[in-house]
Amino acid sequence: MASRLYGRSGYYQSGGAYGFRDQLQDTLGLKYLDSNIMKNQIIKHSKHQFKEGDVEHWWHDENGRGIRTRFSDDLLWLVYVTLEYIEFTGDKSILEIETPYLQGAELQENQDERYDKYEKTTYEESIYQHCVKAIDRSLNFGENGLPKIGSGDWNDGFSTVGNKGRGESVWLGFFLYTILEKFIPICEEMGDSERVQKYSEIKINLKRALNTNGWDGRWYKRAFMDDGNILGSMENDECRIDSIAQSWSIISGAGDNDKKYISIESLENHLVDKENGIIKLLDPPFEKGKLEPGYIKAYLPGVRENGGQYTHASCWVIIAMSILGFGDKALELYRMISPIEHSRTKEASKKYKVEPYAVAADIYGAGNLGGRGGWTWYTGSSSWYYKAGIENILGLKIENGYMKIEPCIPKDWKEYQIQYKWKDSIYNIRIENPNGKSTGVSKVSVDRSAC
């Protein structure tokens, strides 16, 4: 909280800016402390959405200046976190809160970004309308039936994959599917029947495209480039497989059932590096091949997005494993990427080189840098890591203000306990596993009374 929300600063970056997608995701873990932190962040970020639906990629509060880009995922995180807030609290009144937009010159053809001070509109609209504008702006599909990637999706380094307007993102297709799946019921409650029908049809077509054009035989492709080349294909010499298309095929529920299991097995075989204790973002890294995906190629092979561990994405792998019920693997990977595990011995610490008590945004994955940590503290990975452990492994979930326990644990865990403070009450929760299962709650009792 101190690094990401208050200071927006760390040892390796001291910019002080708000990232549109970044600080929204930080609140995913902080909701357990106070859900109002998440609510206030949603409201704040909604004021940095343009009236056309796109958003500032980042901005400084101090001078009101920010950057307008063609990033294709930023705007959807507003919807994702709003849905998470509603699901956690049951408080739908947030959808009625009205905030202004930003206005200013739109990007011209062949212009990827514009840094400026943008003015607020004189009118305001509800958070619901802000979400609708974000979704509608994202419904921009290419010839493969997948959303266009623009000048980058979640991976900023893919800056020239689709900046000419043709490239498409498989991962973004899964992320958009997740948004539609959860937002359609909201539209139904709002009486927005035309949008329900529209989004439902798009969701069906998107799932079909993801499982046909997005499938590569043993895993999901990552993206289609402007020039027709494919990222994340087994035919590639570089970036043959990418992690987040596989994990989100499971998180979204859009992947065909057989493909989900095949793709996660491929991810495990190609991207989990037990020697260095990392889960790589992609492999092999970009170096001297023909593909020109953008500034990701400027990183050394195995560094940051270019084939190292981007911890953010590693957490998504763990969440995907737990959704499939692989409790032993989920905990093994969760423990493996912990900074503590990289610092247990003097030899390991010399290799890791960064703090053993703070999650690192990335860990290098190749050559003599393999296993070396980078960019600690100032990372959105910490929130996802916390969320994966609490919700997906221990299984503590709050939905609509109600507590649920849905563990996905190693079979040899006999029992564990959680003490959780919710509002003015402290809950002492004990989970017993006498039958050596990973998932599936057979009985619940409250104060020793079965229910």
Supply the key terms:
single chain, 451 residues, alpha+beta, four-stranded antiparallel sheet, three-stranded antiparallel sheet, 22 strands
What does this protein structure show overall?
This protein is of the alpha+beta class. It is about 35% helix and about 20% strand. The protein is built from 13 helices and 22 strands. The chain has helices spanning about 1-5, 20-30, 35-45, 75-90, 125-140, 170-190, 195-210, 245-250, 255-270, 310-325, 325-335, 345-350, 380-395; strands spanning about 20, 55-60, 65-70, 100-105, 115, 120-125, 170, 225, 230, 240, 270-275, 280, 280-285, 310, 360-365, 375, 395-400, 400-405, 415-420, 425-430, 445, 450. A four-stranded antiparallel sheet has the order 1-2-3-5. It has a three-stranded antiparallel sheet with strand order 7-8-9. The longest helix has 20 residues, at about 170-190. The relative contact order is 0.09.
Quick overview:
The protein has 451 residues and is of the alpha+beta class.
Largest sheet: 4 strands, antiparallel
Estimate the strand proportion.
15-25%
Apparent shape = globular
**Portion in helices:** 25-40%
Which value, in Å, is the CA radius of gyration?
22 Å
Based on secondary structure, the structural category is: alpha+beta
Enumerate the spans where pLDDT stays under 50 for 5 or more consecutive residues. none
Distance between the termini: 38 Å
Number of helices: 13
The overall average pLDDT, rounded, is 95
Give a count of the beta strands, DSSP E runs of length 2 or more: 22
Strand order of the largest sheet: 1-2-3-5
